[in-house]
Design goal:
Strands 1, 2, 3, 4, 5, 6 and 7 form a seven-stranded antiparallel sheet that branches. The chain has four helices and seven strands. β3 and β4 form a beta hairpin. It is of the alpha+beta class and 195 residues long. The N and C termini lie close together (9 Å). The longest helix is centred in the middle third of the chain and has 16 residues.
Amino acid sequence: MVSFNEIEEGFEIPPYIKGPIKREQLVEYAKASGDGNPIHTNEQIAVMAGLKGVIAHGLLDMAYMIQALVNWLGKDGELKDIDVQFRGMVRPGDMVHSKAKVIKKYKEKGKKFLDLEIWQEAVTPVATISSPLTPDKTEAPSDSSLKLYEAAYRGWLKEGHNIVFELKKDKNRIEHTFYSVQKSIIGTAKAVLFK
């Protein structure tokens, strides 16, 4: 439930996560939207256009952002306006994390408004190092196996990109998965609250 009195400036909505993005999904979106630009569906044409492979439609990414806001507002509010800039590319295999933060809350003409800073991150898996679990080590020992994802093979990473890693353990193995995180959308939105 989203209530004007309970929301504070600085509040971040729960992230809305979609993915991993699949090539088949891009083909279906191209048909449904009428956006037949082959950089979204044809690998060779995307490379000839100077890309490192097919990319997701910007409007598909924006739809995920809108869905994040609409889901959060539910029946307690309505999205009134959204303004975005497309800053990075989303590619097959990426997870898309849509996020927002309340930057201002105010009343105007008897209505309750929230101004939001919005952003979306393309989270690209790069590599996973898997090895036997050793209780005294967090680094992968020399007998580890390495899985490179499409991003690493294609050189989608650039120096300076934000690289994060996730550590998973079970009783026999330890895995370090490395991800590149880049903002694909930034912008603002306005919502009206009913409560």
